[in-house]
Structures are given as C-alpha cells and as structure tokens.
Specification:
- The complex is a heterodimer.
- Chain A is mainly α.
- Helix content of chain A is 54%, strand content 0%.
- Chain A has four helices and no strands.
- Chain A starts with a helix and ends with a helix.
- Chain B folds into two domains: 148 residues, no CATH class; 204 residues, no CATH class.
- The chains are: A mainly alpha, B mainly alpha.
- Chains A and B meet through helix 2 of A and helix 13, helix 14 and helix 15 of B.
Chain lengths: 83, 402
C-alpha cells in the first residue's frame, strides 16, 4: 500500500475544507492552525491506514506532517525502507 | 527593560551599527551588543546562560550520531534542572514545608524563554532540521536584545531564514510603526485607560479587597474584574511582542508573530492558534506531539500540552489550573465538534453563530483569569472562589473552611 498525493489531497479537502486549488505542497497545515489537534490524530490514522505503516512515537512530529510535501516524503521513505 | 532610556539608546545605536557593518559581521555584532547590555542587568545569570548556550552549540550536533544519542536527554535535563532550580523548586519546597509563600532566589533574566529556545535548538539539531549557521548568528538568536526577556520564542530556522536583505524606508517605517503600536498599547491603553478604569488593577492589594468582599460583590462586577484582567494581559503582552517584532525588524530580523487578534476567535481551539502563538507552537511540537505519539490519546496530549503552557508561566497551582482549565475547554470543543459531525451538522458557520462563538470564547477565557487572580492573593483556593463567584456560587474562604 502507498499513500498517493490524490488520496491525501482528497482527505485534506474533505476534512479541513481547504479547496484543492488553494492547497500547495508547502502550505503549513498544523503550525499555522489550519489543522487542529483533533485533525492531527485523524491525519496520523489516515496516513497509517493508507500507507500500511505504524508511525513510531518519535516520528510523529511536524517535520513529517506539517505539509503535503512532508507527509508524502515521509510515506515514501517508509515505503522504501519496508522490505 | 523597555521603560529605561538605556534600552532605546542601545537599540538605536545597534540598528545603525548593524546596517553600517559588513553583512558577514552583523550577527556577531548584534550578539555582542545584546549580550553586553543584558549582562549589565544580570551579570551572573548571563554568564551562566552563555556557558549553557556554548555547551548546547558544541554538544547538540553530537546527538545526531546514533552512539551519542544520550547527549540530547542530558542537555535537556540540564537546562530543565537549571530552570526548575529557580522557578519550580522554591514553590514545591515551600509547599512541602507548609510555608505560605516560597522564598525564591532571583530568577535569571529571561530564563523561561532562554530555556525553551535551547531545548528547541537541541531537538532540531539532533533531528538534522537546522541549516548550517555561524556562531555569531546562533548567539544573536539566543541573546537577541528585543526578544530576550519577553519573547516571542523564536525558532532558530525561522530566525535564519526570515532576514530582510537590506534596510530601506519601508522596513524602517514598518519597524517603527510596530514599536509605536506596542508603546500605545502599553503606556496609553494599559497605563492610562485601564489604570483610570481600575487603578492598580490586579495587584495583590486589589485582589485581596475583592476576596474580602467577594460574597457581597455583584456577579457582573466580578465578571468585569476578570474581563479587565484578561484585557490587561492581552494588551500588555501583545505590546511587548509588538515592540520586540518592530525592534527586531530595525535590527535586520523579521521574527515570528505572537498574537493574531485572539479576541476575535470564534472557538477556544482557534483562540489558541492566535494567543501566544510561539509558546503554543513550542508546546505543540515538543509536548503535545510526543505525548500523542506515545499514547495515541488526544485527551492526554491536550492536557499535557496545556499543563506545560500553564507551568511555563509560573510553577504555581493557579497557573497549572489555568492550563488545565483551557485543556478542558479545548477537549469539550472537540467533543462538541465530533458530535456535530456525527449528526451531519458540521459545515459552514453563519455570522450569527460565529459571533455567538466569539462571545462564548471570550467568556470562557475571561473565566480563566479568575484562577490567575488567585495567584496574586492566597493561591489556588482563592482563584477557585473567584471562579465560583462568576457562576453566582460562594465557596468558603480558607479560614472558614478550617
């Protein structure tokens, strides 16, 4: 399983109400308040479900989750390191 | 610090010298000027802090190596111990001894801001998230004069990235306007307007009088007292942030914003994305997210994050209760939002509901200032008495309870 950009954008649009046209890869989701603490947990659950991974406690941080680009990069790293 | 002429003279001189100096020496020059000025106010504290800053600079990169990962907790424990020694140990020891009030050593200047910045530096260095930087830039960030005593809690990566390339008229005008906003808030709105409405508002003597007459005071008057406390803190604190942001611009750094009209927030979660944003961001990154990662429990992570926010201000029961009160508010808001989503009622919120949400949020935050009033009097019990009075309830005073 792999998290795709399309699925991630759909999720963000549906859950955050951000239109796909307004969403850039580098738009901060959490650190600027677009994503509140409840949505953060939902995002983690979504990323895990789509990627088929379990995020370690130390991986749950903004440099892995704050933007579309970071989320996709994190998921890609996990996919490439999984045998 | 800002009430003395020396600060403004040094700031003006530093701004001129910084922009006249070659770009490569500006950060070091700014670090030196800031440090010398601050060390004049607190020589011993600044000497220890310089030692800490240099130790973090030298040792934090080691933590990125797998075999030296232990360096990170050692650094964090060391700086937290230094913070606790001055800020948290005295009230704990006083409580254990049964003494009414803690006898605290003189807290080093800007200790809380300094400690949190160094923890950020150590963690992000260990994670490999910080770009290369010179020692001058690092020390300029640690000791930046306008931010050292009252924040914002600037992130080092932001400090390095957000530098205006040159000084021009627009930058000077922006910086001076921002400083003027801060001075108007501090000396006109707080110093004259609020002082004329309620002389000595929030002082221990005034809170003592309120507590002595609490059962007789009309409930709306107690709400007015707490609302004025909230407004005073907002204006006062955002004034310092305005001055720090404007002064930093004049020194060549566009630092992080700290307030974004929190009084207009339509819910308590939004309030916390607009109030003391740099502290909230710090606690999100280094308390909320690690606890969420460890427990996967949103409630635990929110309580931990807000407890840290409360205790960052002071190690007292009133500030801890203040943090937990806000955590309870955010959790209740999330539960309400979830319930609405389950009913399919979530969606665009109209202007009337938004206005009602803003009023409700203001009332909730105002209530939290009842707890803080207790910090100026006998402690948490007094804060709870004022909070109960907001609901028209009378809790017995300590003497009556015993």
């Amino acid at each position: 399983m792999a998290l795709t950009r399309q699925r991630l954008l759909e999720w963000i649009e549906a859950r955050l109400g951000v239109r796909a046209g307004e969403l850039t890869d580098d738009l901060p989701l959490f650190s600027t308040g677009n994503l509140n603490s409840r949505r953060m947990l939902e995002l983690v659950t979504f990323v895990e479900r789509e990627s088929g991974i379990r995020m370690k406690a130390a991986e749950l941080r903004l440099d892995n989750l704050d933007t579309v680009a970071r989320i996709l990069a994190y998921a890609a790293r996990q996919a490439s390191s999984t045998p | 610090m800002i009430v003395g002429a020396a600060f403004w003279v040094v700031l003006a001189g530093a701004a001129v010298a910084t922009w006249l100096a070659p770009a490569r020496v500006r950060p070091g020059l700014l670090a030196a000027v800031s440090f010398v000025f601050l060390a004049r106010l607190d020589p011993r504290g600044l000497a220890v802090m310089l030692a800490f800053a240099l130790a973090f600079r030298a040792l934090a990169p080691l933590a990125a190596r797998p075999r030296r990962a232990f360096v990170l907790p050692v650094l964090i424990v060391a700086i937290l111990a230094y913070l606790a020694w001055f800020k948290y140990l005295p009230p704990v020891l006083a409580a254990l001894r049964g003494a009414g009030e803690a006898v605290s050593p003189v807290v080093p200047l800007g200790l809380s801001y300094f400690s949190f910045k160094l923890i950020h530096y150590a963690l992000e260095t260990a994670r490999g998230n910080l770009p290369p930087s010179g020692l001058g830039s690092y020390l300029a960030w640690v000791f930046l004069l306008p931010t050292f005593t009252a924040g914002p809690i600037e992130r080092f990566d932001h400090f390095l990235a957000a530098r205006p390339p040159r000084l021009d008229g627009a930058l000077v005008a922006e910086g001076l306007t921002r400083v003027a906003h801060g001075l108007i808030k501090k000396f006109v709105l707080v110093g004259i307007v609020i002082e004329s409405i309620s002389p000595g508002h929030g002082t221990p003597a005034q809170v003592g009088r309120l507590l002595a007459e609490l059962p007789e005071r009309p409930v709306p008057e107690v709400w007015g007292f707490c609302a004025l406390s909230f407004l005073t803190m907002y204006l006062d604190f955002s004034a310092y942030s305005d001055i720090a942001i404007g002064a930093s611009l004049l020194l060549g750094y566009r630092i992080m914003e700290n307030f974004d009209w929190p009084i207009l927030a339509s819910d308590i979660s939004a309030f916390w994305s607009r109030w003391h944003m740099t502290l909230t961001g710090w606690c999100q990154s280094y308390v909320f997210m690690p606890v969420l990662g460890l427990t996967r429990r949103l409630t635990a992570a929110i309580f931990a994050g807000f407890l840290a926010i409360g205790l960052w201000h002071a190690g007292t029961g009133c500030w801890a209760a203040w943090g937990l009160y806000h955590a309870a508010g955010v959790i209740a808001f999330h539960a309400w939002q979830s319930a609405r989503e389950r009913r399919g009622a979530a969606g665009e919120v109209g202007p009337v509901r938004r206005a009602a949400g803003t009023l409700l949020t203001l009332a909730f935050v105002t209530g939290s200032f009842a707890l803080l009033a207790g910090d100026e009097a006998g402690g948490l019990r007094d804060g709870l008495r004022i909070l109960a009075r907001l609901a028209g309830l009378d809790l017995p005073a300590r003497a009556e309870a015993s």
